[in-house]
Amino acid sequence: MVRAKISRLSDSEPGERFRIAKLDINDDIMKRRLLDLGFVPGCEVAVLQKSPLGDPTAYRVCNTTIALRKEESDHIYGERIYDGNE
């Protein structure tokens, strides 16, 4: 498995997988909410689909589908995961 450079979750496209490295959020309430939803460092996220207008985007995290707006997913950083077939 080869990994790419650090990028924002919001830059990922449907069908991609992403491993969270850090949450860079100054708002403690939003940070706690994202952590409670399963967006924790080391966790793998699958990008499922974007809404017709592009915001929000559905993600699969901890076997749950969660929709986040771009303003929320802009603060989640990590690596896209590639499995050699891509």
Secondary structure: elements and pairs:
Elements (H helix, E strand, L loop, with lengths): L1 E7 L8 E7 L4 H10 L6 E7 L6 E5 L2 E5 L1 H4 L2 E7 L4
Antiparallel strand pairs: 1-6, 2-3, 2-6, 3-4, 4-5
Short description:
The protein is built from two helices and six strands.
What labels would you give this structure?
single chain; 86 residues; alpha+beta; SH3 type barrels; six-stranded antiparallel sheet; 2 helices; 16% helix; iron; transition metal ion binding; Ferrous iron transport protein A; Transcriptional_repressor_C; FeoA_core_dom
SS summary, helix count: 2
Please give the domain count. Answer: 1
| Share of β-strand residues | 35-45%
The CATH H-level superfamily is Ferrous iron transport protein A (FeoA)
**Range of helix content:** 10-25%
**CATH-defined fold name:** SH3 type barrels
| Shape type | globular
| Oligomer kind | single chain
N to C succession of SSEs: EEHEEEHE
Radius of gyration: 12 Å
Q: Could you give the distance between the termini?
A: 10 Å
Which runs of at least 5 residues are low in confidence (pLDDT < 50)?
none
Number of strands: 6
Within the largest sheet, what's the order of strands? Answer: 1-6-2-3-4-5
Query: What is the CATH class name?
Result: Mainly Beta
The CATH architecture classification is Roll
Briefly note the structural class of the backbone.
alpha+beta
Largest sheet: 6 strands, antiparallel
Mean pLDDT: 89
Describe this structure in words.
By secondary structure, this protein is an alpha+beta fold. The chain has a single domain, classed as Ferrous iron transport protein A (FeoA) (SH3 type barrels), CATH 2.30.30.90. It has helices at residues 28-37, 70-73, and strands at residues 2-8, 17-23, 44-50, 57-61, 64-68, 76-82. A 6-stranded antiparallel β-sheet has the order 1-6-2-3-4-5. Strand 3 and strand 4 (57-61) form a beta hairpin. The longest helix is centred in the middle third of the chain and has 10 residues, at 28-37. The mean pLDDT is 89. GO terms for molecular function: transition metal ion binding. InterPro entries: Fe-transptr_FeoA-like (IPR007167), FeoA (IPR052713), FeoA_core_dom (IPR038157), Transcriptional_repressor_C (IPR008988).
